[in-house]
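Ticket 4471: requesting a sanity check on a complex prediction with zinc ion. Repro inputs:
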Amino acid sequence: MSPSVPSRRPGSTVPALLSLLTLSLAAPLTGGAQAKPAAKAAAKATALEATMDRLALQPAVARSLAALQTDNEWTLREQIALCEIPAPPFKEAARAAAFRDKLAALGVQQLRMDKEGNVIGEIRGTGPGPTLLLSGHLDTVFPEGTNVKVKREGTKLSAPGIGDDCRGLAAVLATTRQIMANKIPFTGRLLVVGTMGEEGPGNLRGVRALFAGPLKDSIDMFISIDGTGFGITNGAVGSNRYRVSYKGPGGHSYGAFGMPNPIHAMGRAIAKIADLEAATNPKVTFNVGLVSGGTSVNSISADGVMDIDLRSESAAALADIDARLHVALRQALAEEKARWPKSTMPLALVIDTTGLRPAGTTPDSSFIVRASLAAARTMNVYTPLTISSTDANIPISKGVPAVTLDGGGVGRGAHSLDESYDDRTDGYKGPQWILLVVIGLLTAR
Ligand SMILES: [Zn+2]
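Returned structure tokens:
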């Protein structure tokens, strides 16, 4: 995932009172003194919140939530094991096979891998109902040869990819394990999925394939578990990425002087891009992130190449700045040609699209967001609503209710070699929250 930013919308309120669940698990209801705060909390709760409170006390769910805490070590072991299988962009197959085997060991049925390499398993409910897809992404941003051995110091785990997204994958496995082991009743169908290619170079190719393949019309709700903490991402930052090249014949810097210069054209373009107006609400960003080209100091280069990234949470704002970028690129070409009117040497502009991620939002008022917030309240965790670029971008752009939930714990340094994940004292609350959201969405309609 890309770094998420808090949206301007409020998240859940910080739970002021102990929840029913905390009381029931940590201190069974034996006396009136303990029951009082819970009763007060229930009195304030919305219908959906009350449903989540009741669900957490349902015997199979309560057993599962307790087991996620007492057997937290299992979750961490899975997180470490998956992280130590390298998964560079486009080379996630070994980790995918391991993830499939782990789902098989949990008893998940109808396991398969689709054409893109996504791992898909199914858990059928007891009757008809919606299909919920729960996923984590298999790929990392790290190239082949990166040392992915996990270093463990107390509750802190360090290795590239340990949080993004081995935490998500481990949370999916831990949740699935309890649903299977305790035969939690629900209706409909839960698809448990590991996706390929979520990170930049993959350009969401796994989730795109899911929504283009045989399942495309049968996914009613989508949850990606990505990253650490307790946030809910329901705003999808869209991005348009381009590799832009100005190309000419090139030549000697003295002998061939007087012809259009691709690097000079690129410089003109960069100056225009740097001056683009960009709104702050909705937020719009632009960046020339990488430049290359050239032969030597005394050569007119044959090309000037740059990688450009445009982003916004608003599809309209993204389309608007995209249009202005294209105008700027063409103007730079025309100006560099006009600078040398007597030259017959060509100068060309080539624009390669290297990534398109659609923007959009799952409304705060949607059932999936309200259920995620209500479950967080029951679990006594604070959940900000955030905007980011994740696998959920694709379903959100297609109008399928979708969120990305964090997997608990505290992460640092995602996408860096110093990445770490700290489980602290309450990492297990991530999988607990996820389990309650999943079962809530499949029962509390
Ligand atoms: Zn991620």
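Notes from triage: The radius of gyration is 25 Å. Leaving this open until the requester confirms.
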